[in-house]
Design a protein that fits this description.
- The chain is α/β, with parallel strands linked by helices.
- It has a domain of 143 residues: Rossmann fold (3-Layer(aba) Sandwich).
- 41% of the residues lie in helices and 21% in strands.
- The protein contains 8 helices and 11 strands.
- A 5-stranded parallel beta sheet has the order 3-8-2-9-10, sandwiched between helices. A 4-stranded mixed beta sheet has the order 5-4-7-6.
- The chain is globular.
C-alpha cells in the first residue's frame, strides 16, 4: 500500500519582535523535522560574528539588491534599521514544487507583503513570555548600541499588535516547547486533505481486502 503523498510543499512564515528567538527556533526545527528547508534572505547589511554568506544570509551590495528588486525577483523586501532585506522568489517556488516545506524568518513588514503575494502561506507569530524577558534577550545580543537596543525594544511594543494578522501564535518561554509547537503546526498542515494527493491512496485502499 502506498503512503500519503502531498501535491507540493508549502511556505511557513515565522515573525515576531526582535529578541523573541526566531533564529534559534528555526535552527532547532531543522534538527527535529524532516522535509523543511530554510529560505536564505538577501541583505545589504554586513555579516555579523560567525555569519556565513549563503548560509545565514546572502550578503549583497545596494546595487545588487536593487537589481533583484527591479527584476521582480524578490517575494518581499523591507528596510530594517537602515539595511535592506529581501526574500528571493525562485528558491521558494522551486523547493515547494519538489515537495519540501520552506520556512521563512522575516519581520512584520515583509510578512505583510508575502501574505498579499503568497496567501496560501502559513503565518506563525512568536512572542516572548514577558516584556522583561524580551528586554533581557535584546540586551544579551551584545552587538547593538544603547540607542539601537532601546529602539528595538520600543518597536517591539508596537509589533505585538500584529499578532492578530497571523494564523498561529507560539509563546517562546521554553525553547523545546516552542519548537514542539511549531513542529505540531507544520505536521497538522501537512495532513490537510487539500494538500494531499488522495486519488491513488484511496484506490489502493479499495484494492485491498479487509
Amino acid at each position: 500500500m502506498t503512503g500519503l503523498k502531498r501535491k507540493k510543499g508549502f511556505l511557513i512564515v515565522l515573525s515576531g519582535p526582535s529578541g523573541a528567538g526566531k533564529n534559534t527556533v528555526v535552527n532547532e526545527l531543522s534538527e527535529r523535522l524532516d522535509g523543511v528547508r530554510y529560505s536564505v534572505s538577501v541583505t545589504t547589511r554586513p555579516p555579523g560574528p560567525g555569519e556565513i554568506d549563503g548560509v545565514h544570509y546572502k550578503f549583497l551590495t545596494h546595487d545588487e539588491f536593487r537589481k533583484m528588486q527591479e527584476a521582480g525577483e524578490l517575494l518581499e523586501w523591507a528596510t530594517v534599521y537602515g539595511n535592506l532585506y529581501g526574500t528571493p522568489c525562485s528558491f521558494i517556488e522551486e523547493t515547494t514544487s519538489q515537495g519540501y516545506d520552506v520556512i521563512l524568518d522575516i519581520d512584520i513588514q515583509g510578512a505583510r507583503q508575502v501574505r498579499s503575494r503568497w496567501p496560501a502561506g502559513i503565518f506563525v507569530y512568536l512572542v516572548p513570555p514577558s516584556m522583561a524577558e524580551l528586554w533581557r534577550r535584546i540586551c544579551e545580543r551584545g552587538r547593538d548600541s544603547e540607542e539601537e537596543t532601546a529602539t528595538r525594544f520600543e518597536l517591539a511594543w508596537d509589533e505585538l499588535e500584529a499578532v492578530y494578522e497571523y494564523d498561529y501564535v507560539i509563546v517562546n518561554n521554553n525553547l523545546d516547547e516552542a519548537v514542539d509547537n511549531l513542529c505540531a503546526i507544520i505536521k497538522a498542515e501537512r495532513s490537510k486533505v487539500t494538500r494531499c494527493d488522495l486519488t491513488g491512496f484511496i484506490a489502493d485502499l479499495k484494492g485491498h481486502e479487509a
